[in-house]
């Protein structure tokens, strides 16, 4: 009997450590990024890194390490993507909760899962060969590898997240709200726009934040489809180079443990911190929402 | 009155348009890849080595590379993911540590894939001296997959009714005996379905393997876990952006993309079928 209890305790603590491992991994990622980026700042000024826009680490005369142009590129592409994905995503979610028959809903679920499962490299590939030429013809450009292309592709990648989480949010609006509204003579559409969507607002907002996090961190699509010229982006029709694509392009070519290498980890750290903050905000919104609906 | 109806009809058509666009996106993707890639698909394409600087031949090493990496991913992510899910659903009390663990999982699933790649380079390639190889890449992808397998496994555990647990405990079983005999056997199917979906996503990832082991052109089967490898997604990236004769290899690139997306489709479909069957079993 005593033996049994001992065994149970050991099993319990094994599972406990397994659970703690997740926390360790998250902390480990952060710590390793910090420790690898840190030696770079013996040579690079932190203010230059964060506030200058010129990035040219391979220059013989004077290497420059400013990440502002990449930061702006990332934000531009993400903003464009959200502009497309949020209305489409919420519209689709509203259709699925309000209009779709159970059959359609049954079909829609795997379709959205498949969309979420398409590898980013395939989307990027189509960005080069399908979306790119289309954009070039539409705007009369030489090539379509620009910020708009990246935005369209990122929107496709963020859509499944936004759709399924908004759908959850809309579904969790209490039936009594909609019934009360319908009983007062409002149409289904008015109920949706004036009652359901505002009531699900925080859940939808959290969904959009998560979609935004995905778009900021996406690498392959923007690497392949945005042209990646290392300069301050001029417009949505120009080439942009995001933080993720800079890492992807340059890390393969620099020798380990050089200032340039450390600087790339610095970019990774900034990326990690930004997505962390975005995810945390969405987490907080979602939790407050959960507590309220309970 | 008329106005209201018109507004409603307009609004609903707007929603239909949204769904139409989302559906059209998927159809266009599938149609474009199929129509342009299918001509190159043949038995040889799956079983031959690439030849003449990848302008001819098949993609066998990329298929095998992706398969081997995914096996490593599974070996790391499945047991750890299931263990964590069991802890959270069966053992964890509602306290601060549990909240922190849950928060970490949600945050891990939001960490950009390229950051996992950076982490893999320092931890596996440099600190653990594994070098750029299948093992490093697989472990990196395994860490990335972990939050997905945890969430999927926990979902499956949550679906087991509490009466199963209580019945076992009432008969005097210890907690672990209860989990072993009355929870895991019934949750296993659901856990597996979710995990397979996670692994499929990992297999299609490129960014984490860019620097941890994927190679440009290696026309042979990897000899061990410590050799570099070709992988399907990386192969597609190379064929569409880095190859010296890009227009010439375009058909091969299309066919590779088709194979990748078919892989996703087949795995998703089998997961859907498996889920449907499990649900039917439960009802009976």
Biggest interface, chains and residues, is: A-B, 86 and 87 residues
CATH class category name of chain B: Mainly Alpha
Order of helices and strands of chain A: HHEEHHHHHHHHHH
The oligomeric status of these chains comes to heterodimer
**Element string of chain B (H = helix, E = strand):** HHEEHHHHHHHH
- Nearest-angstrom radius of gyration of chain B? 23 Å
Taking the sheet with the most strands of chain A, its summary is: 2 strands, antiparallel
Number of helices of chain B: 10
Would you identify the CATH architecture of chain A? Orthogonal Bundle
The computed structural class of chain B is mainly alpha
Strand order of the largest sheet of chain A: 1-2
Low-confidence stretches of chain B: none
CATH architecture classification of chain B: Orthogonal Bundle
Q: Kindly identify the CATH topology of chain B.
A: MetI-like fold
Q: Helical amount among residues of chain A, as a percent range?
A: over 70%
Summed over residues and divided by their number, the pLDDT of chain B gives a mean of 89
